[in-house]
Amino acid sequence: MENFPFFTASSKILALAEKAQARAASQFAQINTTQRWNQQKMLAAFQRARVSESCFAASTGYGYDDRGRDVLDEVYAQAFGAEDALVRYNFVSGTHALTVALFGVLRPGDTVLCATGTPYDTIQGVFGLPGREEPGCLKEFGVVYEQVDLLPNGTPDYAELEREIASDCKMVYIQRSRGYSLRPSMSVAEIEKLAAFVKKKAPGCIVMVDNCYGEFIEREEPVARGADLMAGSLIKNPGGGVAPTGGYIAGRKDLVELCSYRLTTPGTGRELGCTLGHNRELFMGAFHAPYVAGEALKTAVFASALFSELGFAVTPTPEEARTDIIQAIELRSREALIAFCRGIQKASPVDAFVVPEPSPMPGYDSDVIMAAGAFTLGSSIELSADGPLREPYAVWMQGGLNYPSGELGVLLAAEELEKAGLV
Ligand SMILES: *Cc1c(COP(=O)(O)O)cnc(C)c1O
Fold first, then answer.
1. 292 and 381 in contact (C-beta within 8 Å)?
2. What is the pLDDT of residues 268-312, one digit of tens each?
3. Could you give the CA distance from residue 214 to residue 222 in angstroms, rounded to a whole number?
4. Ligand 1 centroid – CA 350 distance (Å)
5. In what side-by-side order are the strands of the sheet with 111-114?
6. 396 in contact with ligand 1, CB cutoff 6 A
7. Is this prediction's pTM over 0.85?
């Protein structure tokens, strides 16, 4: 690789980057194919839903007959291979969309079984796990939470699930992405297998997937492969880096309808909700999403390859099949973790002059450092990295709106380690 006049890396890092690219080449070829598939799928969804310029018109007040809102739902339903979808900028986060889905379909006395171990941090407080009984949590409404941990190799514990899933179990909950853990993420094929297993034990059981970070990484989504419902955030993969906020719920028509009564009110559901003029950017985000997710994925694979060349443990490895855009790197020291985040920050289009510092975070027992210079606050489809300052000093990196800028961020992160004498 060569230096252009705008940013520089040492010859050692550039040489390793070249090796990393060679190592990533076959993955890149595969990603390009999936990216092409998903982009065409999205384009076909736009055409089938008959997206027209009038869909971009703003509505106010109750938002009755907002055609753009309804057509956007149809676009995502088609692209996800779902019967139906609810896509709204009114979802304040992925956690909110997941929460609306859970409260939408669960009722007092129901049991929900999480089949992928302890769920993502913010979701723990929604279920009301021991020590995380937030006011208003599902536990307060009499929803019983049960959990089956993953096996040490990160796959579902089918033997334990066989014992634990009762015939009247209302929901099995699956988290696709690793979140901030070092367990592997769960492929759509594994989710399909798990969903079929659940349905055999308990035919009426709802299989729900936390699909965050997984959208458009494989050719199909979990709801096209046996899951009943899934939800996620529009400031991750499915918003294409364009959606300024929002989330989605997609899946079986009857379940999405129940969710709509929780999103607004019983009786009004999806008929209400003005869009104020946000439809155009949400459509644009949907259109860009498959491409951008592919670019973020390439950035993750390149990071995996380069930091593997530099001698760090990486998960997934450059060769491993992927189902989300998260890359974890064990940096082994406080200094290396800080240097990495500072390098990522230096490749940001926004706030590149800011120097990330470790600081305390609510809910963490150690300081946390974060790098992000994004157009959208908290967006993690834009290049970002973070990690807690404790063993093994792992960093979780994700995003990159386009590969050249993502690649540069990874390169500058490596360069910061090199400058600090850490590699
Ligand atoms: C990001 C994420 C969520 C939702 O997080 P928000 O910050 O609320 O959007 C839920 N689960 C997983 C696994 C995630 O990665």
1. yes
2. 999 999 999 999 999 999 999 999 999 999 999 999 999 999 999
3. 9
4. 23
5. 84-88, 247-251, 229-233, 206-210, 171-175, 111-114, 144-147
6. no
7. yes
